[in-house]
Amino acid sequence: MKKMVTGKVVCFILVITLLLTLLVPVVYADSDYEVKYTTMSEWDSAFQGQIEIVNKSNKELDQWKIEFDWDKIISQIWNARLERNEGGHYIIRSEAYNQIIPPGGKLSFGFLGTNGQNISDPTNYSVTDIYDELAKKDLEWQNYLGIMQGTAFQKSWADGMVTATTSFESDEPFRIGYEIIEKNPVEKYIQARYENVEIPTKDGIKLKGIFFPVSCPKGTIIMLHGRGSTALWEVPKLKFLLDNSYQILVYNSRSWNYHTTPEKYIGLMKNDLDDIGCSIDYLKGRYDVDKSKIGIYGFSYGANKALMETALRSDVKVLISDGATQNIPTYSEYFTWERIGQDFLNIYEDKFGQGSASLGIDFFPSIFTNALSSINIPVLFIQGLNDTSVPVEDVEVLYNSANAPKDKIILPQSGHCNGDLTEDKTLYESKILDFLNTYLN
């Protein structure tokens, strides 16, 4: 009887030992993630396995992907999607419902399979996410853009300027397009009531925008972002306007409609100006907007476009220009607009059609100062004293070119379009509110 009991105990211990052996995870780790493989059960030549991914980084893994080498054959999988197995190299992706692994979070997926030639565990793990893939695409775009612009500048400086001013506006179209335009994380930038809107353009595309309504508005302001920027990046600047009963429309420039195909984008200023007009027409069609109280607030290149469009329209009541330049830079002291300007216009129209450069405003000596001389609405000019992108002298030239009621503010602690982030914040906001309460309210 004792021998029988002893035999059962030994058998039980062996079973438990085997189970514990199967369930001990094999761990691979680097600084950003940890991968744990566990054989959950095994029978004949088949098995059930599980892989757990631990996110050790300080950012979320979005649309994660894991790769590894293994001689076993996965026949069924859950909580993940088997993209391919080529010669024992596996690529497995997230499902739509579990594509995010937050910082410090973990996720597991299971599978059934059959053993291969060798009884081994997965090796050569690699964990990436969509941002790694987007970074590769952005690098390819940067190389493409560098070659294209370099070739154009070698031909002539005027050719180079045409290419530079009409190419896609950002070095990171894929990452920014996905993170900011597609995901549209408004709540990350501001806590306010808003509506996602679409603004139809003259040539049939739709611009993604955000409208921030308020009760009993004093007026409505269109905010225009700078070159390579997005609408959301300007949104943190507008809270004080909402708090003071000014409602806001922001929209992404048309270049962002091409963020997955930046090589196909052709940035014609005429289209950008038409789009501002379409945004004005969109507001005039809303029941909650007073058509007689529409203003424009432009940042950087958005301010330059605002200067030009308001010179051509009579339905804008005020203009705020933050960080505008007195002229489009040529990036050369020798190749000034006086030297290359006419060649630039000729090449521009040869490439994009007769009249494509015609905006109703003379280009020379400066298209922006010429525009200002035609504007008959109040203009507020804002410039940071420490701006390394636009010299402070530019705001003086622009201010002196304006004939309508005008004001300016030089922010002593600020750089390029960042008055809301410096010690000048109170001065910056109060000056804008005084201007709007005087001329728009």
Automatic annotation (TrEMBL):
Q: Which residues form the CBM2 domain?
A: 26-135
The record ties this protein, via PROSITE patterns, to:
CBM2
Q: Which Pfam families match?
A: CBM_2 (PF00553), Peptidase_S9 (PF00326)
Q: Which domain of life is it from?
A: Bacteria
Q: Which SUPFAM superfamilies match?
A: alpha/beta-Hydrolases, Carbohydrate-binding domain
Gene Ontology BP annotations: carbohydrate metabolic process; proteolysis
List GO molecular-function terms, semicolon-separated: hydrolase activity, hydrolyzing O-glycosyl compounds; polysaccharide binding; serine-type peptidase activity
The protein's matches in InterPro entries, at most eight in alphabetical order, are given as:
AB_hydrolase_fold, CBD2, CBM2/CBM3_carb-bd_dom_sf, CBM2_carb-bd_dom_sf, Peptidase_S9_cat
SMART domains the UniProt entry points to: CBD_II
What protein am I looking at? Cellulose-binding family II
Species of origin reads Ruminiclostridium papyrosolvens DSM 2782
